[in-house]
Amino acid sequence: MNTVLSRANSLFAFSLSVMAALTFGCFITTAFKDRSVPVDISVTKVMLKNVDDFTGPREKSDLGFVYFDVTADLHPIFDWNVKQLFLYLSAEYSTKSNALNQVVLWDKIVLRGDNTKLNLKEMKSKYFFFDDGNGLRANKNITLTLSWNVVPNAGILPLITGSGHISVPFPDTYETARSY
Amino acid sequence: MLSLDFLDDVRRMNKRQLYYQVLNFGMIVSSALMIWKGLMVVTGSESPIVVVLSGSMEPAFHRGDLLFLTNRAEDPIRVGEIVVFRIEGREIPIVHRVLKIHEKFVPYIGIVTILMNDYPKFKYAVLCMLGLFVLVHRE
């Protein structure tokens, strides 16, 4: 320990180990928290079209449109270890050809410091709700849930689903009018 | 000047010390390899630690971040999860988020998109510490 360089070396090594221990502490104090809050989703309108699908292997696929309202209070989830929440609304259903389908319709990033009371009305889906085929028509059970991915400063990123989901049926006929 | 000093050092060591140094170095290299392979087995992933190369994952992952991955067979891929995958013929792994799943009996990923963050500093710290251990030990 007689040169500047060796002192700087040990100082650096020590501070790195301290930071690692701090990071681990940050992780372990919030690792077992329950991050679920009640969520209220309601659907105002559902529409179905059968259009050209350039993303899949077939000519035409079912395209669904869902308009929804979402209310939730995300405040209890945020603590010193949460950097942001990635919210997403997903639709889950099953068809004759596919046992499990999950499609994300809409998402939002809620950063720490943002308004945590979610009160959205008449929202349109952000992504196209294409089915892999024609399984949406007359499908009685499409379940919409709001989930979030908790992004911590240090630790695992869990996917939590809000308690409170809604099931909607899709219509039996396709909408042929040019409206969106 | 510097190179001559180094050679003097080596000449001062007798054969046994030289062999010892080489063996020491070999031990460090092989223990690093063991840790890496052990990680591969424990996580079930081909490449348990990857670096984020592009800025596509917005406020979540930045360029140069390290990601720690697991690939357990009993965890099916679900919507909203972040996956790291490699396309055939391309060496670079891609980090994205799953947007759609249409599962028959064999699951496959549909369109994926961006976002998310992780705890890269912790991983960086561990790896740097390993490197520094070597440095300090040499003293």
UniProtKB/TrEMBL annotation, chain A:
Q: Which keywords fit this entry according to its UniProt record?
A: Endoplasmic reticulum, Membrane, Signal-anchor, Transmembrane, Transmembrane helix
Q: Which InterPro entries match?
A: SPC3
* Transmembrane regions listed in the UniProt entry: 12-32
- Pfam families, A to Z: SPC22
Report the membrane topology from the UniProt record.
Answer: Single-pass type II membrane protein
Q: Give Gene Ontology CC terms.
A: signal peptidase complex
Q: Which GO terms describe its biological process?
A: protein targeting to ER; signal peptide processing
Q: Which family does it belong to?
A: Belongs to the SPCS3 family.
| Function noted in UniProt | Essential component of the signal peptidase complex (SPC) which catalyzes the cleavage of N-terminal signal sequences from nascent proteins as they are translocated into the lumen of the endoplasmic reticulum. Essential for the SPC catalytic activity, possibly by stabilizing and positioning the active center of the complex close to the lumenal surface.
Q: What is this protein called?
A: Signal peptidase complex subunit 3
The gene from which this protein is expressed is spcs3
TrEMBL record, chain B:
In this chain the Peptidase S24/S26A/S26B/S26C domain maps to 36-100
Q: Does the keyword Secreted apply?
A: no
- Short name of any one Pfam family annotated for the protein: Peptidase_S24
Q: Which residues cross the membrane?
A: 18-36
Q: What is this protein called?
A: Signal peptidase complex catalytic subunit SEC11
What is the E.C. number?
Answer: 3.4.21.89
GO cellular component labels: signal peptidase complex
Give the UniProt record's GO annotations in the biological process aspect. signal peptide processing
| NCBIfam families in the record | sigpep_I_arch
Gene expressing this chain:
sec11a
